[in-house]
């Protein structure tokens, strides 16, 4: 509730954060570090939760959902975290929303072969349009 959101890649600033998502180059849930940008990172929902069938490589969004999705849904619904309602909703939200974010963020095509058209209106694409280009010398994320 009283959290402060900091957008940075500065390792010294990241070290002081309680939770770090999508930057920092490490995945360590014990320290609340949820980045998927390491060459060695291969985690999927199935590898972290063997009771789940999805093998798409997780993005940072998927990592956060994997670790906190059930807890958040349970709180919002006033239902037990391991109950059938939360379990069903968790699975449906992953399969029909978060998995697409994971796949797009990791460059996984929705189908084999040459695409017939570009998907430019996905959630990931819309968020990407808000960020500076990777090679832009001015990386100020607050400039619109």
UniProtKB/TrEMBL annotation:
Q: What is this protein's name?
A: MYG1 protein
A Pfam family per the record: MYG1_exonuc
Report the superkingdom from the record.
Eukaryota
Family listed: Belongs to the MYG1 family.
Q: GO terms for CC?
A: cytoplasm; nucleus
């Amino acid at each position: 509730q009283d959290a402060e959101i900091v957008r940075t890649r500065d390792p010294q600033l990241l070290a002081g954060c309680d939770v770090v998502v999508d930057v920092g180059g490490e995945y360590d849930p014990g320290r609340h570090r949820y980045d998927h940008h390491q060459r060695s990172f291969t985690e999927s929902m199935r590898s972290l939760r063997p009771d789940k069938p999805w093998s798409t490589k997780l993005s940072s969004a998927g990592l956060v959902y994997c670790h906190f999705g059930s807890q958040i849904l349970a709180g919002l619904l006033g239902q037990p975290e391991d109950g059938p309602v939360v379990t069903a909703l968790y699975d449906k939200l992953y399969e029909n929303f978060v998995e697409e974010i994971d796949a797009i963020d990791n460059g996984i095509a929705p189908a084999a072969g040459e695409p017939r058209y570009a998907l430019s209106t996905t959630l990931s694409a819309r968020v990407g349009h808000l960020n500076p280009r990777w090679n832009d010398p001015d990386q100020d994320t607050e400039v619109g």
